What does this fold into?
Amino acid sequence: MASIEKSSKKNIEANPLIIPDSYEGYSLSYFNLPLHYRNDLKSVLIPYGFVQDRIEALASRIFDDLHIGMPEQLICMCVLKGGYRFFSDLVSKIQNENRLRSDRSLPMSLEFIRTRSYINDQSSGSLEIIGLGDLNKIKNKNVLIIEDIIDSGITMVTLKEELEKFHPKTIRVASLITKRRKDKKCVFKPDYCGFEVPDHFVVGYALDYNEYFRDLEHICILKESGVTKYKVTPSNQVK
It folds into this structure.
């Protein structure tokens, strides 16, 4: 049995499944999408079922990497708002591993923080972090940050630096998506990642554009017309 589990762990990639630049996604006509968004989307890049399968594989890999002989709590930290769907599904699938593997244990607790660094589709150059005031509890604990998407990587670098001030035992990062930028190289590589995507503006599965599109099940490419339609200006931006 031990050899089978070891082989299973070896075959599950922590690195992302790479979607090539030439891939433009699936036609919208194959999916039942909300009518209020259909004209704003170019294609379905990653269908919901594919997302779930990849998260299940990541959960198995994370469990194998982080379970400990003597139970030691893992603090799972959700980066709101975009990360809540990935966070919920990943934690649920790790819990399934706990139920299936009676010889191992990975106790978890949950924390929630929020960051903001984007206005429309551009980085503002600064990072606002909400919810760090009571995180002394992570001292000497293992932390898993769960994020929806890593773009430039600057936000995650800054977040890790802030969390390290609370002296955790370890910090690992799981991201559903990393983006392959044309104009700059990502400065951060997560420990676990679902997909690496081309330099498209993607929405859905809780990834938003100015608070729209979180209610899409699939991960989709947003049209330029959609970017313009839902763009905010300093005068109408919610503070």
